Amino acid sequence: MMRFVIFLALSAGLSACMTTREEPVAQAPVADTHGAIVAAQLASELDYRARYDPAALEAVDNEMRALALRLAAPAEPPPEPDPIAADPDGGISLMHAVHLASYRDEANAVSGWMMLQGLFPDLFGDRMARIEEADLGSRGLFLRLKAGPFDTAADARLACREVEATGGWCAVTDFTGRPLEP
After folding, report:
1. What is the rounded CA–CA span in Å between residue 97 and residue 100?
2. Structure pTM?
3. pLDDT at residue 69 tops 80
4. Hey, CA dihedral for 104, 106, 107, 113, is it positive or negative?
5. Is the pLDDT at 147 greater than 90, yes or no?
6. Are residues 100 and 170 in contact, defined by beta-carbon separation less than 8 angstroms?
7. Which domains are present in the chain?
8. What is the largest CA-CA distance in the chain?
9. If residue 109 lies in a helix (H) or strand (E), which one and from where to where?
10. At residue 96, what are phi and psi to the nearest 5 degrees?
11. In the chain, how many H helices and how many E strands?
12. What is the CB-side half-sphere exposure of residue 22 using CA atoms within 13 A?
């Protein structure tokens, strides 16, 4: 009889353990892109740290907040690239530039240009900045920040690749507009 009671108690204990054990949740596969794979790995690492080493997350709190804000921000469509514009005499500019950003006011264009020169001193340190007004209809009036001149469109494309490699936006265009005054 005692064996039966022990067997019954053990069976009840095992069944209770089996019903309270967490089963892994099936997850959808991650997209086969570099960004998606890195995001999945980062999410896994953050989940682990949040459970077993929360103190390690304190050192990257500001970065996590910045990433969360950036991910929550609505995506803005990239500005439309500039067409080749004619100069005042009716000719086409022979100098090339890169369109780096668009701003609503000139003060922001100046600070944006200074930031870009700091981020890319070898690329923009000795270049000139120009701004050109672009009326985007219902979206309003923007000031396009351009850097140049570059001797060829191929040189401008190389500059764009360097900017885009760090997550920036860039488009090859003509070197028109008025000089940006700091």
Report:
1. 9
2. 0.50
3. no
4. positive
5. yes
6. yes
7. 33-75 (no CATH), 96-179 (3.30.70.1070)
8. 109
9. helix 106-119
10. -110, 155
11. 6, 5
12. 3
Amino acid, single-letter form, for residue 93: S
76-124 per-position pLDDT tens digit? 666 666 555 544 554 455 789 999 999 999 999 999 999 999 999 999 9
Report in angstroms the alpha-carbon separations of 64 from 38, 42, 46, 67, 71: 15, 11, 10, 5, 10
Within 10 Å of residue 123's Cβ, how many Cβ atoms? Answer: 16
Position 86 scores a pLDDT of 47
- With beta carbons less than 8 A apart as the criterion, state whether 80 and 139 touch: no
Look at residues 122, 124, 144 and name the one whose alpha carbon lies nearest to residue 133.
144
Residue with tokens 């996590």: 64
Nearest CA-CA partner of 124 in 99, 97, 157, 147: 147
pLDDT tens digits along 13-58: 444 444 455 556 667 787 888 777 777 777 888 888 889 988 887 8
Number of Cβ atoms within 10 Å of the Cβ of 110: 17
